[in-house]
Amino acid sequence: MRSSAEPESPEEAERRAYPRARVVVSCDLEVEGKLHLGVLRDVSANGIFVEIDAPAPTPLPCGAEVEVWIRDFSAPPFWLRGRLVRDTEGRGVGVEIISAPEDFYWLLYALML
Asked: Which of 26, 47, 34 is nearest to 93 (CA)?
C-alpha cells in the first residue's frame, strides 16, 4: 500500500473515531452479486473509502453487505467484509468494516507509523 503525504485536516481528524491513512490500492467491490472495480483511497481501523472505476447506473444501496478484495502487490491479496454506509454517486463508496483479517490491521499499523 502506498500512503499519500497529504494528511487529514485537523477538522477531518477530529470528527473521526480512528485516524485514516490515504492510500492508492487496487480492489474489487462486490455488492449484491455485482462486481465493481475500484481503488482504495483511504483506510482506518473501522472503515474504508473505495473510488469506483465505473459508477453504478443507480446509487448502491446503503446498508448492503459488501466484500472488498484488496490487491496490494507488495503482499498477498485479502478480503474484507463490510457494510455500505455512503454512496457519493459517482465518486465512490464508504464502507464500514465488519470483519477483516489480521494482516489488514498490521498493514494499517505500518501506514500509521
From this structure: 47
